[in-house]
Every structure is written in structure tokens, then in C-alpha cells.
Amino acid sequence: MKFFIETYGCQMNVADSELVANILNKAGYISTSNIDEADIIIFNTCTVRQNAEDRVLGRISNENKRKVKKTHLKIGIIGCVAQRLEEELLKDNKAIDFVAGVDQYKELPNIINSLNHNQKRSKTEVNNSEVYEHLLPKREGHFNAFVTITRGCDNFCTYCIVPYTRGRERSRSFEEIVTEVRIAGENGFKDVTLLGQNVNSYQFKNTNFPELLRKVNKVESIKRLRFVTSHPKDLSDELIEVMATSDKICEHLHLPMQSADNEILKRMNRGYSAEHYFKIVQKLRKAMPEIAITSDIIAGFPGETEEQFQRTYNMMKNIEFDYAFTFKYSPRKGTKAADFQDQIAEKIRLERLSRLIDLQTKITHKKYQNQIGKIKELYVEKVSKKSQSELAGKSRDFKITVFEGDKSLIGSFVKVKIVDAVGWTLKGELM
Ligand code: 5AD
Ligand code: SF4
Prior knowledge:
Helix content is 33%, strand content 24%. The protein is an alpha/beta fold. The protein has three domains: 2-117, Methylthiotransferase, N-terminal domain (Rossmann fold), CATH 3.40.50; 144-369, pyruvate-formate lyase- activating enzyme (Alpha-Beta Horseshoe), CATH 3.80.30; 375-430, CATH 2.40.50.140. The strands form six sheets. It has a six-stranded parallel β-sheet with strand order 2-1-3-4-5-6, sandwiched between helices. Strand 11 (203-204) and strand 12 form a beta hairpin. Helix 9 packs parallel to helix 10 (237-245). The relative contact order is 0.08. Bound molecules: 5'-deoxyadenosine and iron/sulfur cluster (SF4). Iron/sulfur cluster binds at residues 153, 155-157, 160, 162-163, 197-198, 231.
């Protein structure tokens, strides 16, 4: 029996799909990257915004037609939509045969084995201590390793569904993490990203996040270390110091700001002020002048006035993020903000979002132009999408760069001189 997994959403889901692939491999199922060959199709889903959920549910109902030709085909849904809607999904969506929640992936072989003709199954109990210990992910088709260090989230930002779908925050043991990183490096994954909803609050016995980074930085088999996502309220001076003094930690930080208006930040339950956020950016840039800072911003949170929106806009202009993911606020049922009475009209949310996108496009363009003439080290990852003679790699500051080079360089580190910038891509020449 062959299975195919299609992954939506954040890197946590990418890492979870790799975990699920390993669980199914161990149970005797074989993975395929060709959906037409699959006997089991699994969708790992995201529900962070409504359009993410709509997109994947639309996709699943489309796949139902495959069952006409292949009657034994089973379709499953895992991840955050599975956790949010549970067995409701089986009633509303005829294409789906099984549903497994984010803490039930070890049960997947049992669930799939027990599906007899026309039977449907759902297992979505939350297990707030599940960290999938002693299970290595099955990584394929890329050179970056995602290593999960925490699961769940306790922050309850008022707009966010994640604490409800992924449960309470729990940290994996640092021994397990260090071992996983070492093995990933030995298997050729030289650029490692530690993952969690809020990595800065990692705590396992006496080991906090900066201490974990010190330990992982010593792993000899890897060359680069990153982590995502950081929360401004937990970003300590100790962490900045560790970042600045650890050779493997890359000069890139993703630090969601969400808003730069203090009243909105309070209503979002973010736990920091705009001034605090700005100060962190200054400290980071002082400690690491080459650091690239990226962010997430929400436009049109309930109650946001034009003046409050302007504060966010001006802060983005002032800080100049290398890149910012900008989102239109999307009410998620069950979260506090969805019940706020002062929801902003869709038209205004969209209009503010488009102003943020325009601003960030200009800033990113300027930042990328400024890279021309610099010499950068790239981790060569693949053949470029646009041209077979070009390779694509990532710099330490997380910028995709293409250059003319031989395929044998894939998986290695090279130095290039940046000669041009087109959109979000830099063009380099091999040194
Ligand atoms: N509406 C819009 N954006 C959201 N995000 C999370 N929840 C919502 C929501 N309900 C954004 C935040 C977060 C990113 C992953 O998604 O900016 O940092
Ligand atoms: Fe959601 Fe806030 Fe947790 Fe991030 S920190 S996952 S935005 S609740």
C-alpha cells in the first residue's frame, strides 16, 4: 500500500508530515510522491485563517472522483483542520475516510488498518504530553532539516486558533533534540531549523532556549542553525547574545510584530508594546549588523482605527523588515477576537492589507538592491525553477540566490558575488 501526503500551512506541518511518513513506513506502508500511484491520500491541513481551510477542503472534495477508478482508495485528513472540526468532517465531506488529530499520529496505522469497506474513523483526542519521542522524521526532497523542539502554544493571542488545535505547550528533551540534529547533519542536512510555535519559551528541566542553542551550536555535523517562530515578549538579552556569539546561528530572525499600536497589541494579548518591539530590533541590529529581520503583520484586527493602522504602517516603514508576511484579519470561531463586537468591514481590511503589501514590496526591493556587490555564502539546494543551467541556494540571511553552476554543487556550500536583484531573488556569480 502506497501513501501520498500533501502538506498545507506552516513548517510545523511540514515537520509533522515527515513524522507521519516515518510512522507509516515503520508500519509497512510505502511513500510515493505521485498522487496517482497512492492507495492512501493524506492531507495535512492548516486552519490559521479561513481561506487556508477553504482551500484544502475544496481540494479534498475534488479528489473524491479518484475513487470511481480506484475503489479501495482511502482519503484522510490530519493537522489543524482535523483537530478543529473532528468527526464533523466525516459527516460534511463524503470524500474523507479518516481523520486524525495532531496528537494521534502514532495511531494512524491502526486507524488505516481498521478501515473496512465504506467504514469511516476519526481519532482526535488531545494529548497535552505527546512529543513523539524516539521518532525521527523521514526527510525527502530538500536539504533543510526541520527539528521540532516544542509542540502546542500557551499564549492565546486573541485572534489565534493554534492553542485550541495544538494544545498546551510542551518541550522535547534537549538530549533528543541534539541527537536528532546530529543525525540530520550526518545524513547531509547541513541547515537546521528548530521549530515551535514559540521557540523562545522552550524549557526542559534547567535548559532554557539560549542554553539549548548553545548545545545545538556545538553539533559538528551541521553548518547552519535557525529557529522559528520567536515571540517578542520572550526574546531575552541572553538570547541575542547567544545569537551573536554562536557561529552556526544564522543572521536571520523571524519576529512577528502583528501590530504597532499598543491598544491593539493589548487586545491581541501579545504581552509587549510597540516600543518594546522596536527596542528589540535595535538591539538585534546592534549585536548583528547583517541580520535580516522578517515579520508577520495583521491588517484590520477588530476595532483597528485608521490612526492605529497608521502606527503599524509607519513602524514598518521605520524598521524596514527584509520581508513581512501580511495578513487580513480572519475571524476564527472559538477565539476571543472572533466575538469582539467591533469587527472591521472586509473592504477596509483588504484595503489596509493592500497598503501594507505595497509598502513592503518597496522596502524589500530596496533591501535586495542593497545586496548587489556583496559576497555571500550559499547552501546550494536545487536547480533553479526558471533555468536548468542555474542553481538556487540560500544565504545565511535567508535570501534565495540563483547562479550559473554545475548540478554537482547541490548540497554543498559556495561563495557568490551578488550581481543583480529581481523580485525576491538575488542573482550571483560563482567566486
Ligand atoms: N487572522 C489573520 N492572521 C492570523 N494569523 C494568525 N491568526 C490569524 C488570524 N485569525 C497570522 C499571524 C501569525 C501568522 C502565522 O498568521 O500573523 O503570526
Ligand atoms: Fe498563535 Fe500567538 Fe501562539 Fe503564535 S504565539 S501560535 S500567534 S497564540
